[in-house]
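Reopening this one. Same input as before:
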Amino acid sequence: MKPTGKSRRRKADASRQIIVEAARAHFFSHAHFPSKMALLEAVIADKFASVEARLKEVTRTYPHDFSTALQELLSSTQRELDEIKPPFVRDMRQKAPHVFKMVERRRAELIERHFGKLFVEGQRTGMVRKDIPAKLMIEILLTMVQGIMNPPKMQELGMTPKEGFTGIIKIVLEGAITRKGQKL
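Same output, byte for byte:
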């Protein structure tokens, strides 16, 4: 028997209540944040720290294996993006624009650092075209991410952050990888 709309609402309300009670207990006894904004900033900083650690691990583990490093960087980035839902990004942009700007800046730094190293290594090994400067490829990638990976554009396109990033990477890489690199 399929659950009715009323029973689904009760279940959702019960789940919501469990979450609220757990958060209340934790915040009232353990949280040391002067405001919700400070808590948001701490959550974002923690997220970036985990992303940075994972991307560093990938680039350290596969320093001269372009195809594996590329696949690992992409899958790690996509896994991290799965956690972030469009309503959260939209609300953060509207209600905490300074935090959203910090997220954009940190995101650009991660792309430059990790994908930049990858593109340079790819050029060295003949997997990425050498006739296009790696810095230009990164700048194109950053511009696309900046222009598309924002709440209004994602909503207009009807995409999640993961879908948007995947599409951007696919477009950039299919234009940058040589025939040898396409045989990955």
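So the earlier flakiness isn't reproducible anymore. For the record, The chain has a mean pLDDT of 84.
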